[in-house]
Amino acid sequence: MSGLGSFEDPPQVVISVDDGLSDGDEKTWPETGKATKWDWQAFPDAKWRKTLAELWVTELGSFQSGKEYILEKLPRGFCLFDRARGTDPKFRDKFLYGHPSGFTYQTPKLFLPHLHWLMTGRVKPCECSPCLRVIKGRLPQKRRTKAEMQSSRGEGSSRKGKGRSDDDDDDDSRRKGKGKAKADDDDEIIGQLPHPTNSKGEKIPIEWNDDWPMTEHGPDYWKIHMMKMKAEGKIDIQIEHHFNFDWHFSHELLETYFTRLTLEPSFIPRKGELVLWVFEMKGELAYHPESQTYQMRSEDGTWLGMPDWRAGVVSQTPEEKCSYMDIYRTTTKKNPCVTSHGFRIETLPDPIGDDKSYSCQYRYVPLKCIRPFNAYERFIHGSARESWHPSIEHALTVMSSFATVANTRFVGTWPDARIHCRGIWVGAELLAVKDTIRLKPFGLEVEDTVRNNLVYKPDPDPVDVMTIDKIALNLQGCKEDPKDPQLADGISALVAGKVYTRDPNRLSRHNPFGNNEPLRELTPEECDAAFNQLHMRDYGPWYVMLGGRNGAVSHTMILGRCYEPIANDCFFDTRRLDYDIHSVLNARKYSEQVDLRMPEGIRWFWGDNRTEILGLAEMNGLEIWSGRPYTKKDWDTAGLPSSGKTSTKNSAFKALCKTSNLVRTGLGATSSSDEENSEKDLSERELRKSIPFREESSESESEEEEFDEAAANASLLEELPKIRSP
Q: Where are the domains of the chain?
């Protein structure tokens, strides 16, 4: 019998659960039985209890290998259910019910914060997603007037009634000063947002003015900044929107995220990006010369056919670092768990349709199962269009879209302004300050890349690169009237930075920057300093353009990020930078034709955020929406596809124009011409027109002048995006 010892179950540690602290509510449970629409059934919860126990003791630092941990039971009022998947009834999806709000948890990891809150005595506010949504749901739909706030506390001159303390009278006296509303009044307006504090925990005074223009979610900060710019002639302020819920909860996270982003290799997929992916890659992906396709190849050299590619959105990135070798083979990691070293990819649903159930089809996969979506033609070449997974066309639909992210400064001289930001979404990719990006040749259209029905590859490689120094949303002709539904006459995205080329005869071709200073070859040391990526000198000699000064381009000129040379080899078997030029331009042309969110004559969709662009209803199993958080009743009433269910009727999700005030008020802005803008439509004078920020004098202001000079010479602004209401 001793020989069977190695097969004995490990010692089990049972963790007790105090039901007295539970807030679970059985009234939120779904109705079970075959007669119900979704065939809800109670599901055994042993696996969940084991996972939760392991996560719990790991968080406490008490985990011991060789032991098995399990919760005695789920907290009272919580129960695990499953139901048939809307798109494929053969599969069943699990949901944990019991949260008082009616919201559900789809994974043990999502329930862990609430369990932690319950098991630690419910002392601090719970940080689980449903609890945060309940808190955020208190945000009023419109600002209450002073009379309404006074009325809610009791009528009459004394206004001191039942349940009213003397402290409330002190609050009234503090509120009498116009424009000096304090914390209590702030809470009435912003739905119990925490008051900002400094490093010592002291409250920071927040400016407030009763004359500010308002939206349903608080102050209209963009109109407020324009009013200030109009009154003072010019403006240069850091963006701090304390009464904006999204800014309050995201600005610190975004600052940390973009700081870390500069330290990562550029070839690693980023959260929110679109990628080509496959559930499983047998062997490694390699180019098959006879069929001229990319196929899977086993270790013994046997060709296994093309992968079943689909398009997806990156919702989680791995904790462990990736190497170049991860691109084409499975490598040994410290933590063998795929959730630690894999990317969570969710299949992309139709961005303009109602059925969002594809989001439930996700998997954690290694990097070798992923390829950049910009080069989709390279990898699906050889497969018939009708055999493509539907998600590929879903991704093509959003390739002509952009959105700025992480706004930092509002700078301008009346009537023009810029909103500086840390990043910009262009099609499939997120581009950030310090990234190196590839620029398409000036004036190139998709038809120009094909000769004799084949993609034409000119020699030398015509793609230049830019190291991003600044990203900004350009507002031309800001509206003076705060009640005007439009924000400005013209709105466009600008990206500025130093421009480099690998072609020593680059000046013999058209130079759209308006600067024909001789090219200068970078020394190896200068090359290392110029690029944030490593080993860029391995591409060969680099030449700096424009005498080392910044150039500016619109987002329409950007192909995508420039990867490290070794990554290019591993991904595409080439060190040319135009490997996806036909693929990207063809995808944008398709997007212009099928994305119904773009009015006729408009070539780009300007989104408020990534989830709006992709039309996502949920990510990482969490329901998301760019407006206020909806209650369970809202979802039921609207008939929206929640938690992967398939909608059977029209829904409010088609109203994807529900955006922030910045985008909503900008939707009426057009360029100077009602016709389509391109380098062929704009005169040289218009292309070189300067934006007047010339009164600046400080160091930061001189940087703005440099940006102005770059923008003034930016005949790369092929298509100043026309953005107007349908």
A: 10-136, 274-389
